[in-house]
């Protein structure tokens, strides 16, 4: 937590910027093993961890049907994902959002398959590393999963206490000062901030009361739609809606934070909304918001400079949630019963005194055998539940020219 070169954890600044370490102290504890590696080795390790997390995310979103797509389809999916701007930035910046999303979706999988005994551990760890996933604890409460919510809260508090034991000073500084200083994260009006707060800041509305009111409206819509999704057993949609709401209500949501939209695209594909999913995905591959890097004023700036925020809001309002087809309910273990196979009737035994004609005997035996085969042919096989693919539609997005990064370039003067 301390280094003779960098001093205390929250004293460090990226050279040439005002950006410092912005995550809770437990994030630093979790990253301590990286300090044992050289710079290039640590970069390679971070890349491999992110790729592994992405594989887990795709596996969880695909569900039981993941094997039927084959390696070619998954390779094509990986190529399409490489165009997704939030994912590109996550990998290039070495961000942790993919790891957090994998932890959260693991809990979603446990809840969807009726194995909720350990559900909450992943959410708790994610919330201890970064505050945004804490909204998933609220989802568990909205869904009436109090045990899972309590477990997630206990894990988050336990991890936070561990960090406080490792470095009390850093923990005290974060929770009393650094947490409330948004300038450490970046300028609210910077075009990469695609949250409600970012929209208001670019509109010149500094009043926090307005922001709080809009946040309450967003959370009201989220709670209503998430409750309906959970009631229908659609945990994937409920978690997707929570990721969307978290991006909107967070004070700062950089473009690379929008990897939390991936579950929403999985829901769109599952619902057969391939054109909608493909169009929105293509837009998120274009880096279009950076066209308003210098000036987001005017009608074009209001619409174009906040494109990603509008997509997030639109998905929150109209994502097809709680519309599982019959037989695809994922809220609990399957309770369907299997029809018992009919027992074929034994062929009648003809007394020897009656079997006078050898031809008749052969005819009777063949007839009896045919009855048996027909009976067994009518036995249904094990039912298989159809599932939809979760990878995005095959689109041909256009990539934008090189643009400034929220972490690699100095923001324009206010």
Oligomer: single chain
Assign a percent range to the helix content: 40-55%
Number of domains: 1
What value does the Rg take, in angstroms?
28 Å
Q: What's the average pLDDT?
A: 79
* Unreliable segments of 5+ consecutive residues: 1-7, 325-414
Tally of strands: 0
Structural class: mainly alpha
Q: N- to C-terminal separation?
A: 34 Å
Instruction: Report strand %.
Output: under 5%
Number of helices: 17
Q: Specify the biggest β-sheet.
A: none
Q: Give helix and strand order, one letter per element, not per position.
A: HHHHHHHHHHHHHHHHH
The coarse silhouette is globular
Short description:
The protein is mainly alpha-helical and 414 residues long.
Q: What would you say this structure looks like, in words?
A:
The chain has one domain. The radius of gyration is 28 Å and the shape is globular. Mean pLDDT is 79; it is low at 1-7 and 325-414. The chain has 414 residues and is mainly alpha-helical. Helix 7 packs antiparallel against helix 8 (146-166) and helix 12 (235-249) packs antiparallel against helix 13. It has helices at 25-30, 39-62, 70-81, 85-93, 97-112, 121-129, 135-142, 146-166, 168-176, 196-202, 208-231, 235-249, 262-270, 274-283, 298-304, 307-318, 358-377. The two termini are 34 Å apart.
């Amino acid at each position: 937590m301390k280094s003779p070169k960098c001093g205390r954890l929250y004293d460090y600044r990226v050279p040439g910027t005002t950006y410092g370490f912005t995550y809770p102290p437990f994030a630093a504890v979790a990253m301590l093993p990286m300090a044992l590696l050289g710079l290039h080795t640590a970069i390679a390790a971070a890349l491999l961890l992110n790729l592994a997390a992405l594989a887990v995310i795709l596996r969880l979103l695909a569900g039981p049907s993941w094997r039927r797509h084959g390696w070619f389809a998954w390779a094509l999916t990986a190529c399409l994902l490489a165009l997704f701007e939030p994912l590109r930035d996550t990998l290039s910046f070495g961000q942790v959002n993919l790891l957090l999303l994998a932890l959260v979706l693991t809990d979603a999988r446990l809840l969807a398959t009726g194995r909720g005994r350990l559900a909450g551990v992943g959410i708790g760890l994610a919330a201890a590393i970064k505050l945004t996933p804490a909204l998933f604890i609220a989802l568990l409460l909205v869904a009436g999963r109090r045990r899972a919510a309590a477990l997630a809260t206990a894990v988050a508090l336990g991890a936070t206490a561990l960090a406080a034991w490792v470095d009390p000073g850093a923990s005290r500084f974060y929770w009393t000062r650094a947490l409330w200083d948004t300038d450490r994260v970046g300028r609210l009006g910077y075009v990469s901030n695609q949250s409600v707060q970012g929209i208001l800041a670019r509109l010149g509305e500094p009043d926090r009361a307005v922001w709080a009111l809009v946040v309450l409206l967003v959370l009201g819509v989220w709670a209503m739609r998430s409750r309906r999704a959970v009631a229908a057993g659609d945990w994937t949609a409920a978690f997707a809606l929570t990721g969307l709401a978290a991006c909107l209500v967070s004070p700062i949501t950089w473009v690379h934070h929008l990897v939390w939209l991936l579950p929403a695209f999985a829901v769109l594909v599952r619902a057969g909304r391939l054109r909608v999913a493909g169009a929105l995905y293509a837009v998120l591959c274009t880096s279009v918001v950076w066209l308003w890097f210098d000036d987001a004023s005017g009608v074009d700036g209001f619409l174009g400079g906040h494109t990603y925020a509008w997509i997030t809001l639109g998905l929150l309002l109209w994502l097809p949630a709680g519309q599982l087809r019959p037989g695809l309910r994922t809220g609990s273990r399957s309770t369907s019963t299997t029809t018992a196979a009919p027992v074929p009737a034994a062929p009648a035994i003809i007394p020897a005194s009656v079997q006078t004609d050898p031809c008749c005997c052969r005819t009777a035996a063949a007839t009896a055998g045919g009855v048996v085969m027909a009976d067994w042919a009518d036995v249904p096989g094990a039912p298989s539940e159809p599932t939809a693919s979760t990878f995005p539609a095959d689109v041909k997005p256009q990539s934008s020219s090189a643009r400034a990064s929220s972490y690699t370039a100095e923001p324009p003067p206010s």
